[in-house]
Amino acid sequence: MWDRQIEADLESGKPDQIIAKAKVDISAGRVKSLDEILNK
Which residues of 2-40 are buried (b: 16+ CB within 10 A; e: fewer)? Predict the structure, then answer.
């Protein structure tokens, strides 16, 4: 079941959209480093 959903998402380009948004957020400084989150 999950394999088919992942394949469908990959074919539709869904991960590409998420990656593009993450890159924009990183460039804009709207993310925290993992160390900052884990060391609280």
Answer: eeeeeeeeeeeeeeeeeeeeeeeeeeeeeeeeeeeeeee
First to last CA, the chain: 37
pTM over 0.85: no
Q: What percentage of residues in the chain have a pLDDT greater than 70?
A: 100
The answer to whether residue 27 sits within a structural domain is yes
Answer whether residue 28 is part of any domain.
yes
- Domain with 19, as residue range(s), is 15-40
